[in-house]
Amino acid sequence: MSNIHKEFVFSEEIKTSLNTCWQSPSNIALIKYWGKEKNQIPKNPSISFTLSKCLTTTSVQFEPRVDKSSTYSYAFYFENKETPSFLPKIEAFFERIVPYVPYLKTHHMVIHSENSFPHSSGIASSASAMSALALCLLEPEKENSDKGEDYFNQKASFLARLGSGSASRSVQGPAVVWGKSDFFRESTDLYGIKMPSLHPIFQNYCDSILIVDVGEKKVSSTTGHELMNNHPYANERFAQAVERMEKIKCILEKGEIADFISLVESEALTLHAMMMTANPYFILLKPNTLKIIEKIWEYRKETDSKVCFTLDAGANIHLLYPEKEKNSVKEFINTTLSSYCQEKKVIFDTVGNGAKKISL
Ligand code: DP6
Q: What is the pTM of this model?
């Protein structure tokens, strides 16, 4: 593998058995990552809120291997069932990270993973899943060395990024920057860093996820990223994201909600505009996504609410609002918005503090 990052190489031999479990949250990007280079390097910096209730819990049991006939020896269970469809993704992940976690080859691993949200909710689980798995896979090194919390957070995010870019932002919270930005001193393309100072209003911000479509996406994020390579507006978009990092930093530090609303909504629509102007073009929004957006704009006009929306690469709406509006927005959802959701599905989440080790 070319392009080795020496600071994260671990070459000691480990022969111990170990059982570990981690719980990692999903995250929602405010400035979006859309477009990447080789080796999961983002084309532009991004920033997200870490969530607290949309979680993946993963456990890994490591046993030193006797039989060394195949490259990796492992069993994978998703929600207690063997799921062969996940194996190619997991093996590709192992292959990318093995220079940094060589004991993957010297141990048999039994992996169990489950999500707190239903599989059919249309919620992308790669961020929470890859982050929880990366944290588990790092545990043998953690148990056998004393490099300190910062190093392990960085390395966990670095490994998670090699599984899925946005997963690099799921290790810590409440707000995480991934990708080199001049406005965040320690930011890097290699892993996510916790935003040092977040205004209190955002520390318990609410994110209610309106499930407009539970179906599998027609175009994967991976394809979407690829289509940014020959996109007519790519350079302008990457430059815009770079500039927006300065704006969002100021907004998040000072608690400027009016500016937050216009920046975050514009970012969501820009992401989808990139999809609609790609070659080939595609649309992930659904009619009900637009109906909900109109209802949000009407509601803001009629009340002094600060509720706004963002979108990930799908049709679902993330409704973002301050904690003090919890009850009124809940009522707005129940009376107006939930009827545009599939089976009226809504997940009430809030900003959270990142991954947690679960004692077994
Ligand atoms: C629109 O992290 O899912 O949610 O690196 O190929 O796994 P891969 O892509 P992924 O892309 C996320 C795209 C996004 C924006 C974001 O989360 O920043």
A: 0.97
